[in-house]
Amino acid sequence: MAEETGDDAASVRRRRLARRKAAHRAARRVLARPGHMATIGDRLALLHGTAPRLYDLDEPVDVYGAGVVTALEERVAGLLGKEAAAFFPTGTMAQQVALRCWAGRTGNPAVALHALAHPEVHERHAFSTVSGLRTVRVTSEPRPPTADEVRGLEEPFGALMLELPLREAGFVLPSWEELREVVGAARERDAVVHFDGARLWETTTHFGRPLDEIADLADSVYVSFYKSLDGFGGAALAGPRALVEEAKVWRHRYGGQVFQQFPTALSALAGLENELPRLPEYVAHARVVAAALQEGFEAAGLPWARVHPRRPHTHEFQVWLPYDVDVLTEAAVRQGEETGTLLFADTWDRGGPHVSVTEIGVRAAGLEWTADDVRAAVADFAGFLREEVARREAAEDEDAP
C-alpha cells in the first residue's frame, strides 16, 4: 500500500470529521449535544430565546468592553469570590497575561505546572515564545501533582499553575485535602497560585465546596465560558483588582481588546443561567453512565476495556479500548448511522500501540439514558466493532502474498 502523503492524511481526517458530525446531527440519542456540533441557526435561535431575560437588550451594544461585558465580568467575580474579573477572547491569552503579571510581581518568570497541562500540550510553547515565561514541570504522572512534588522542585518558581480538572489525565481532581496541601506547599516556596479553571465550574460536586471557596485557595483563576457552559467562546480572569486592571492593559497589547463582544458575552450569561446549575446533575449521571459502560464492556467480552476514572470526578471522563483509531472510529460512526444511537461521539486518539482513547461527556441529552440503555448501546457497539475487525482481517488476508 502506498504511503499516505500529508495532504492525503489531512483529507482523510476532514472526511472522517464531516461524517462523524453528520452522524451526530442525525442521531436520535447521544450523551451530549455540545454547541459546537450545532448549526449557526440553532445557536442563534437559542441565544434569541434566552438573551431577553438575561440582559436589557434595549441597552447600547458594548464598545471595547462596556455594557454587557462589564455585567458578565461582575457576575463572574461574584461567583468566584474575587475582587474583579476581566473578559478575554481566549483562555490561552488570559493565562499568559495572568502569569506574565504575576512574574512582574514575583520577579520570577518560572511557572511550575504539570507536564500534561494545557499550555504544555496544546498551546505551541506560547508561554516561552510569546510571554517570556519558562515552564518547570512538577510531574508527568497522569494524576494531579502532590505537595511533596511541589516542595521537591529543585529550582525556585514564581507561580504554581494547577489545572482543575486535569483533562489529559482523565478530567481528574485531587481531594480537597490534597488541593489545600499543594497550595500550601506553593506558599511555602513563596510562590503565587493560579488555577487553570477552564472547567472549574464542574468541580463543586467532587470537592463538596461552593465555587467561591474553591477559588479562594488561588491568587487568580481563569474560567472558560464554552467548555462547561456551552457559550460561544471567551474566558475570564478573576483575582485582585490591581492584577485585573493590569491584565486589561496587557489584554489590549495582546490584541484582545475586541470592538464588540455582546454575542459571546450574552451566550456566557446564558451558560451561567442555564448550564451552571445543572452541572452537579450531569456529574451525578456521568457516574451512572461510567459504571454502566464498564459493565457493558465486561458483558460484551471486550478485552482490557477501561473507564477512567472508574467513578468520574466531573461529568467528563475517558474510555480506553485496545483497538486502532480507524477501527473504533468506523464502528462508532456506523452505530450512529445505522441505529440512531451514537455512543462515542468524540474523536478516538492513539493512546499507545493498538490502544486508543476517547472522551465522554454527559450533558442534558445524556440524562435521558438509563443504565440499561447504556449497556444495550455497548452491546450494539461491540457488534459493529467485531464486524469491522473481521472486515479488516479479511482484507489483510486478501492482500497477503
Automatic annotation (TrEMBL):
Gene Ontology cellular component terms for the protein in this record: cytosol
Reported cofactor(s): pyridoxal 5'-phosphate
Q: Does the keyword Metal-binding apply?
A: no
In the record, biological process GO terms are:
glycine biosynthetic process; L-threonine catabolic process
Q: Which UniProt keywords apply?
A: Pyridoxal phosphate
Keyword Glycosyltransferase tagged: no
Tell me which residues make up the Aromatic amino acid beta-eliminating lyase/threonine aldolase domain: 67-295
**SUPFAM superfamilies, from UniProt?**
PLP-dependent transferases
Chain segments annotated as coiled-coil in the UniProt record: none
The entry lists its GO molecular-function terms as: L-allo-threonine aldolase activity
Q: What family does this chain come from, according to its entry?
A: Belongs to the threonine aldolase family.
Protein name per its UniProtKB record: Threonine aldolase
Q: Which organism is it from?
A: Streptomyces ruber
